Amino acid sequence: MSGYTPSWLALREPADAGARAAELLDPLRAALPPGPLLLWDVGCGTGSLARWLAPRLPGPQHWILYDSDPALLAEASVSAPHETRQGRIADLSAADLAGASLVAASALLDILTPAELDGFAAAITGAGVPALLTLSVVGRVRLTPSDPLDAEIGAAFNDHQRRDGLLGPDAVAAAAEALGRRGAALRTRPSPWKLGPARGELAAAWLRGWVAAAVEQRPDLGPAAAGYLRRRLAAGLHVEVHHADLLAIPGETPIWGNTPTFGNLS
């Protein structure tokens, strides 16, 4: 489901923790049922979202960490005594989520197809469970100082994210539509990575992956991209990688209205 390595997930975990939209936590807590909480982390990787979210939620908690990758689930089980379940997102149903207090996910929506996302939205709303869906890419990157190749490489990367029918940077809008159409109250907030010298290792790893994906999508960019990468790494990186967090509360009178606040995601 995730396709990520434990080393990459460990490297990005502090940046993820700093980026998530904490202002969604108060309305999330208000939507949770009383008593012990049953929480799902879908596409959990090594469990970083549960590590971030658990201390921010009240009371006794039981977490179900769900992923298709058995190696990541094994890694997740080392850090905390959570329940783990192996499975595909396409197999999740409302019946599976029955009784859940919350479904959470991180860096998941953009690697889904429209059919997978629609099924996920149907499972969430069918079970009547709130969902906190964090750190989905929105297709915008800002590097400082700018370079003439930034826009071209960024466009090629976004096309790569949409390969094989994946949603990529269109995922947040698609999720809002799928959940809103089923009656969920929605709120979105920006959750950008802001990477500089203090997170230089992550910035460099991200840049290499960003450029490599762009070149895979457009091999003609290869010669220019090699020079671009050398210039960027030599000069030191300051980069904002824009994401969005989405909170959905199904089956209730909308708290904020069903129009997601996409205007404040930049």
Show the helix and strand layout:
Layout: H1 6-19, H2 25-31, E1 37-42, H3 48-53, E2 61-67, H4 70-79, E3 83-86, H5 94-97, E4 102-106, H6 114-127, E5 131-144, H7 150-161, H8 171-181, E6 185-190, E7 193-195, H9 200-217, H10 222-235, E8 238-249
Q: How do you describe this structure in short?
A:
By secondary structure, the protein is an alpha/beta fold.
Verbal overview:
This protein is an alpha/beta fold. It has 10 helices and 8 strands. It has helices spanning 6-19, 25-31, 48-53, 70-79, 94-97, 114-127, 150-161, 171-181, 200-217, 222-235, and strands spanning 37-42, 61-67, 83-86, 102-106, 131-144, 185-190, 193-195, 238-249. Strands 1, 2, 3, 4, 5, 6, 7 and 8 form an 8-stranded mixed β-sheet that branches. It is globular, with a radius of gyration of 18 Å. Residues 253-266 have low confidence and may be disordered.
